[in-house]
Amino acid sequence: MRDRGGRLGPGGRWGVAALVTAVLTIGALVSGAVYDGQLHNEDRYAGQLMDRYAEEVSEAISDRVDQYTDTLDDLAAAVGTRGLPDRDEYDSLTAELNGARLPGAASVAFVVAASTGQTSAVQQKWRSLGAAGLRLTPAAGLAEHYFAVFDRMFDTGPSVLGLDMAQSPQSAVVLAMARRSGELAVSAAYQLIRDRRVDPAVRQTSVVFAAPVHTAPDRTGTSTFEGWIVMAVRGQDFLSQTLINRAQGAMQVSLSDPGASGTVIAASRPGTRLHEEQLDRERVLQVGQRPWRIDMWPTRRLLTITDRGISRLTGAAALALTIMLAVVTGVLASGRRRALHQVEQATTALRRDIERRESVEARLREREHELHHLAFHDPLTGLANRQLFYERLTHALTTRNQHVIGVLFIDLDGFKQVNDARGHHAGDIVLKTVAERLHAGVRIGDTAARFGGDEFAVLLESLAEPADARTAAQRIVADVHAPIDITGVAATVTASVGIALHLPGTSDTADDLLRDADAAMYAAKAGGKNRYVLSAAP
Question: Which terminus of the chain is more exposed, N or C, with fewer CB under 10 A?
Answer without folding.
Answer: C
